[in-house]
Amino acid sequence: MAGPVLEARNLVKHFPVRRGIFARERAAVRAVDDISFAIEPGKTLGLVGESGCGKTTTAKLVLLLEQPTGGVMRFQGQDLQALDGGRLREYRRSVQAVFQDPFASLNPRMRVSSIIAEPLVTNESLPSAEVRKRVLRLLELVGLPERSADLFPHEFSGGQRQRIAIARALALSPKVVVLDEPVSALDVSIRAQILNLLRDLQAQLGLSYLFIAHDLAAVAHMSHTIAVMYLGKIVEVGDADTVAKAPKHPYTQALFSAALPSHPDERREEIVLAGEVPSPLSPPSGCHFHPRCPQAMERCAAEEPKLLPESGRDVACHLYTGVTVAWRSSPSGGGR
Amino acid sequence: MSGPLLEVRHLSTHYVSARGTRVTRAVDDVSLTLGEGETLGIVGESGSGKTTLAVSLLRLLPPAGRIVSGEIRFEGDDLLRKSNAEMRRIRGKRIAMILQDPMASLNPLFTVGDQVAEPLRVHEGASRGSAWSRALDLLKAVRISAPEMRVREYPHQMSGGMRQRIVGAIAISCEPRLLIADEPTTSLDLTIQAQYLNLLRDLQRAHNLALIFITHNLGIVAKMCDQVAVMYGGRLVESGPIAQIYNAPAHPYTRALLESIPRLADSRKRLTAIDGQPPDPAALPGGCAFHPRCPKVMDRCRVEAPPESMVATSHTSRCWLS
């Protein structure tokens, strides 16, 4: 394959904090602070981290809902900054989103057929019979009966609404779908249905996903690559199995050990972190994680660690000097 | 005291519509027991009746809710026979509750110290000074850093994890025997959730508290509980010791639920999804409420609800197959 479908290099997003009568910029929230990642065609990049770590800002940058303060984003090799209006519109068509709460993301006053058809109507001039045909095909794709087209969102359960949101996201045959907590608002017995559907659609349509969730098991289940964020930085990134089963960064280790067991026999020794995530307005010096890190050294407070290869993935931590086999940004195969 | 701390027998709670024409059987014939210092997890999806069951235990139902039958024996006495005044002396003192959203449980106009001291002043008649100093100790017990400073602060000055710990401090202030926690960690981040669950477990051990966890999260149950009770459509479909439920689930719903959650240890496997969706509690299917989604449904399930049957020692299930 010819390289990643979406690539970010040294992406930065700062939100200025303005105070006083002249609204001078007093400080900046470093929501996303110099991160790089790549999403391969037909693959899933899982983004994990706690609230305030910058995952949602990253998703907004990818969707062009926010303009980056710095860095480069490339879509199929092309720099997004260099795209003109027409090409930019094409990018927006190729990158779609499914959000957490299907009760909020669907207009209660529109019929399902209009909801799903809206992207088609605004982006393509199709005869109405063709639009109807496409809507019915999309409904079939997400496993909803044909008659759903003429109903309103309130007539559906949470899981079915999320299917409608997925159908709408797929209307323009996107390359990349941003999934921001797509199952956390759903009932437990429904989550597996939606996760299975998303994986089937990926296999069928060759979609790439940016999957954001706080349920680590779900992320590990869905992703080919996992990136762990802490206070705007990626602290560890690599093949999903490698990161999930043998995490190296102390934060990743703590995060995965805090994940709830799926069986009582799995009750294990946990690394319980002291304190809470500091404010991104004034992140700690050096490694942002050092005040909570059980293995912090003197060096960590002074010097910011770089993201370097370590045991088959990239880690930003002074515990590892990073003189081992390089992890390539395009892991081969592992069809899921 | 002999016998269990809490014994619920054939409890049914219904919601009646304004005209009395429609009845929702939110909790239907539920029995369970809990000993001193034990932990019970009540698992269910939205509309399964788990929260109604919890508020029934405290008799805090909304006006439309009625406890129509059954008994709730707590420390040997039937709570349903208590007067309202007697119930007020039990709530917050003998049985405490932690709710999902700490911001909704705390009063934004009072300092944290006032709110932690309030139950001590109300239930134990403590003086202002002694209640305040005990509030300080309680903040220390729930691991609030710099409690001397925090005790004078207001809820909005704290993070979600800290607020939930304040709610925990209020709950344990009068040294209750039973603590009911309704989804206590859903609004918390993962590492903060781990901190909070460990705190609850330490408090439980220190005070020999009995805990009831109401949750939809099977992971929390696996981590925290000795006993599990699985609710579906207002009924307890399966209950028993945690190891038995996770290793040999007897009810098809429990089995399907356990198979449908992704596991970190086995992340490649395709998930086994449960078809359909949880039933509307106001319009439950006839017979066994799970029958429209059950992979092993038989003709009998559609017409007749199965009774509770013993599968093994203290392991019960409501299924015609068991």
Q: In summary, what is this structure?
A:
The complex is a heterodimer of chains A (336) and B (322). Chain A is α/β, with parallel strands linked by helices and 336 residues long.
In terms of topology, how is this protein built?
The complex is a heterodimer of chains A (336) and B (322).
Chain A: E1 6-19, E2 24-39, E3 44-48, H1 55-62, E4 70-75, E5 78-79, H2 85-94, E6 95-98, H3 112-123, H4 128-141, H5 158-170, E7 176-180, H6 188-205, E8 208-212, H7 216-222, E9 225-230, E10 233-239, H8 240-245, H9 250-258, H10 298-302, E11 308-310, E12 313-315
Parallel strand pairs in A: 3-8, 3-9, 6-7, 7-8
Antiparallel strand pairs in A: 1-2, 1-4, 4-5, 9-10, 10-12, 11-12
Helix pairs in contact in A: 3-4, 3-5, 4-5, 5-6
Chain B: E1 6-16, E2 23-34, E3 39-43, H1 50-57, E4 65-74, E5 77-78, H2 84-90, E6 95-98, H3 102-105, H4 112-124, H5 128-141, H6 147-150, H7 160-172, E7 178-182, H8 190-207, E8 210-215, H9 218-224, E9 227-232, E10 235-241, H10 242-247, H11 252-260, H12 299-303, E11 309-312, E12 315-317
Parallel strand pairs in B: 3-8, 3-9, 6-7, 7-8
Antiparallel strand pairs in B: 1-2, 1-4, 4-5, 9-10, 10-12, 11-12
Helix pairs in contact in B: 4-5, 4-7, 5-7, 7-8
